[in-house]
Fold this protein.
Amino acid sequence: MRVSSQQETDIEKVYKMYADMLFRISYSALLSKEDAEDAVHEVFMKYLNRKPHFKSSEHEKAWLIRVTLNQCKDIGRRKKIRKYTPLDEIIESPKVKEDSIGILEQVFALPEKYKTAIILHYFEGYSIEEISSALKLTKSAVKMRLLRGREYLKKEMDKEGNDYV
Amino acid sequence: MFDKNTIKTYRSITASDSLKRRVLSQSTTEGTRPIFGMNPLRGQRKFALAGSFLVLLLVILSLNSLQSVSLHLRDDGRPSPANFTGEKAGRSIDANMPAVVPLEIKSRRDIRVNVSSGYVVIADDDMEEDPPKLKSLSLSGSKKIDWYIENGGEAGNATIDITTGKKRISYELFYDVENHQWILKKNK
């Protein structure tokens, strides 16, 4: 059985809209290009096979984020030894400043629950409400994770003598 | 909170073209899907799920066995003419003399010991005072106890019950007139 050309168009559209974001989220969770690609690939396969029905594009986005995070956890559990990809190897832009890479590395080193909230909010631009829907958390829980994540990051930055603001 | 450069750097992380090709090519080749459905991991998950149930079953069974209690005669230097080996074994004690039955209870849970005749004490060589003589004892885990029957000949059939959770085992101590020996037997 082959998928219809309409489905192909849909998946292309969805891929174009979300693949980069899902890859970034996956990379930040797994710190491996190879595993992040596997995670994103798996998410799109689930999207294709399950053909979930979404009430809105927000709902679709929340589903994709949630499935991606679960997929990353799954890969993290299954693969105890993973091939680490340094951040500067996956950033192709030559204009990137070293300071920025240093800060991102600190963010990516945060404990998982804080990192996810910080990345979705400050880097992907999602509102607290959107994050609470994607992570199935209360808004106050998301706020708490953001607060603790910031505090954790500040402490780590202070140790290194960096300033991220 | 984060400066524009950091956010820009983060946003410059993008999915590779090879990933795009991989996803889109798979979207048109459903025929390559393996058994157990469309996702190769699904089959593995089914096995993993079945495995988990099996492990759970084994854990439950092993927990059940851990809850079991056993009672043994101790070999701690006391005269012990006959070994207690399980269902039925003898212990030669003069029926008219006080019987002291040195026992070891093995359990991983809290247990309660009740005797119908005589009394039980915790066998503790380091204890400075005489231990209390009790018909009923609450113990935590494995312990050595001594069961005293003041006058063996008059005790009749004495029982010791060990209760842990919902499980209860009972041993009977009686005097075998023909063979002139005490018998400690597990009740079924």
In short: Strands of chain B lie at 70-73, 88-91, 99-106, 110-115, 119-122, 136-140, 143-149, 158-164, 167-176, 181-186. Confidence is low (pLDDT under 50) at residues 30-39, 76-93 of chain B. Chain B touches chain A through 31 residues (CB under 8 Å).
